[in-house]
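S1.2 Input.
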Amino acid sequence: MGDEKKLGLRILQYYPEHLDYTVMPMLEKMLMQSTGWDFVDDISIHLVETVLEKEKRTYQYLKRWSRSDNFWMKRASLISQILLFRNGKGDKKLFFKFAEKMVGEKEFFIRKAIGWGLREMSKADTESVFDFLIRIKDKASGLTLREGSKRLPEKMKKMVLEKH
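S1.3 Output.
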């Protein structure tokens, strides 16, 4: 990512009062033009998340992104709630729906994003994450299962990671 883009993202991040639903088309365009995880993650986690917290209709963007052919957009749909999940907020049901549809993806960055979202969610909602991981364990990659179960109590983690 170019230094100018990084600077622009930092400026937007430090002025969250200017981030509302009206900036979503711009953020979406920035995501579509992204060619690497660093830019996608920065926009999703620090900018899209700010708008999500303010305006629930922003979830419509995530729904559309989850169906995109562009795997960076799919990743954005999964990770935009990371900070919300960490604090026991966000739309877990929507995330589970996205994750279940994408669990068979071969793309590393998607499998990692599913696990990352689950890991952050487990800090505030261990049971839901455990139940979801058990439900998908036969379809999910080892990466997703390891990442998603990382913060679970040891007994739960073993159940998720054990082979049949």
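S1.4 Remarks. DSSP finds eleven helices and no strands in the chain.
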